[in-house]
């Protein structure tokens, strides 16, 4: 795919501005070999940005993965002697070879001219469901929503926890995608009203992020995207990003302690955060930038210190057990390996990047095997999404997108494995109901 000069200049400018702002804010003090590795990581970041900006889908695997090299490029240990130590060249190199493995395979899988042309047609053409399709979509959306909320309803009415509740809860995502595919405003609003009602009882940040993603992805799939509509969508994504940076992070503790939630506590939490009152982290972090960016910065970068800590103190192999954890857990055998599924962080920030479990499984160079697999998997899921109007593929891509976005601080593919769970749910439901097979 050819890259226009305009796209290249914008991406290059964005990368340069990011590095300059961070250099002026926190400073870098690299040894010569680390400086070279930081430049290589910046090149990977720039490549992801160029490929991502060029893609007609703003939410695409390149943009998601760009957070991984970005988190490494902006890393500096001078922020805090409590949470940070200098990264060794071996840690930088481990990150770089895995990022390269992921990006190379992702590019090979995604760079197919026929799929790109088909996606262009889908984006430009408005999808219009028939009357029979709308009725079928509404019926199955309601059925899937009921299955997805069954565990919560059962717990509220009887106090009993459904043993497959975590699995069935992912049925809400194809339900949401089907609601959007009906293109009936009343039905869509009713679907979100149900979700809002459940959040008054049980709120989960990860579920909220996934629903935000599927909302944007579904709109992109089922509604024509001219320049005006695309601009509105970009503004919505920007507002969402600002919300997470300036509101979600400051209110992290408040959300976790929902019993104390009130308008007064909401306002107090914001004030305390921005004025450094009752902020445990502010006392141990030498931060020279905006207070609102302090916690997001640590969240973005502390994972690399934990990667290094695992390299130095937990350099033992699990020989594929992490990669097989989804299957082992579905077979209810994970209890036999509980001691092997433990990662010890360097500090109270227990984030590790997606690379850590791959290193535990296959070692330094072998970890690239897992990165190649993830690049292939994410690329295939995206390809299936962009060549069809299927609500199932919208749901699968949205859930996989959540895991892809969070690769800079965790490996939800093998740790929580919901990207594979949603595939099984959609496959089983399509086989169970013949009328739902092609929705």
Automatic annotation (TrEMBL):
Looking at the UniProt entry, the stretches that span the membrane are 12-28, 34-50, 62-85, 91-110, 162-180, 192-219, 231-251, 362-379, 391-409, 415-433
Give the record's keywords alphabetically. Membrane, Transmembrane, Transmembrane helix
Q: What is the lineage of its organism?
A: Bacteria, Bacillati, Bacillota, Clostridia, Lachnospirales
Q: Origin organism of this chain? A: Faecalicatena orotica
Q: What is this protein called?
A: Oligosaccharide repeat unit polymerase
Record flagged with keyword Transmembrane helix: yes
């Amino acid at each position: 795919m050819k890259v226009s000069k305009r796209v290249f200049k914008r991406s290059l400018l964005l990368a340069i501005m990011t590095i300059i702002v961070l250099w002026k804010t926190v400073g870098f003090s690299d040894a010569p070999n680390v400086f070279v590795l930081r430049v290589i990581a910046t090149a990977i970041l720039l490549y992801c940005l160029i490929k991502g900006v060029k893609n007609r889908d703003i939410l695409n695997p390149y943009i998601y993965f760009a957070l991984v090299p970005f988190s490494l490029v902006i890393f500096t240990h001078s922020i805090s002697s409590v949470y940070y130590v200098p990264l060794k060249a071996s840690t930088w190199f481990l990150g770089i070879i895995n990022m390269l493995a992921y990006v190379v395979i992702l590019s090979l899988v995604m760079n197919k001219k026929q799929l790109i042309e088909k996606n262009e047609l889908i984006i430009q053409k408005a999808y219009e469901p028939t009357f029979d399709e709308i009725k079928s979509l509404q019926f199955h959306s309601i059925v899937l929503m009921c299955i997805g909320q069954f565990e919560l309803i059962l717990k509220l009415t009887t106090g009993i926890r459904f043993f497959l509740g975590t699995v069935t809860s992912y049925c809400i995502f194809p339900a949401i995608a089907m609601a959007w595919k009906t293109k009936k405003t009343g039905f869509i609003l009713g679907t979100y009203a149900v979700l809002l009602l459940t959040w008054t009882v049980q709120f989960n940040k990860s579920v909220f992020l996934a629903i935000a993603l599927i909302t944007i992805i579904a709109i992109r799939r089922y509604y024509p995207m001219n320049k005006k509509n695309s601009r509105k969508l970009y503004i919505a994504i920007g507002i969402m990003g600002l919300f997470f940076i300036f509101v979600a992070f400051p209110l992290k503790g408040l959300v976790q302690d929902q019993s104390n939630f009130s308008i007064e506590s909401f306002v107090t939490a914001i004030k305390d955060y921005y004025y450094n009152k009752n902020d445990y982290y502010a006392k141990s972090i030498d931060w020279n930038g905006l207070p609102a960016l302090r916690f997001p910065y640590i969240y973005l970068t502390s994972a690399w210190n934990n990667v290094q800590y695992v390299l130095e103190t937990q350099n033992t192999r699990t020989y594929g057990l992490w990669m097989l954890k989804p299957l082992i857990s579905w077979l209810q055998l994970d209890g036999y390996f509980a001691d092997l599924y433990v990662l010890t962080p360097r500090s109270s920030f227990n984030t590790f990047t997606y690379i850590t479990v791959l290193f535990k499984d296959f070692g330094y160079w072998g970890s690239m095997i897992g990165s190649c697999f993830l690049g292939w998997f994410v690329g295939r899921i995206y390809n299936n999404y962009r060549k069809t109007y299927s609500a199932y593929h919208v749901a699968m891509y949205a859930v996989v997108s959540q895991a892809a976005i969070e690769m800079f601080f965790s490996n939800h593919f093998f740790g929580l494995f919901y990207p594979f769970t949603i595939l099984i749910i959609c496959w089983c439901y399509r086989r169970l109901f013949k009328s739902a097979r092609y929705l």
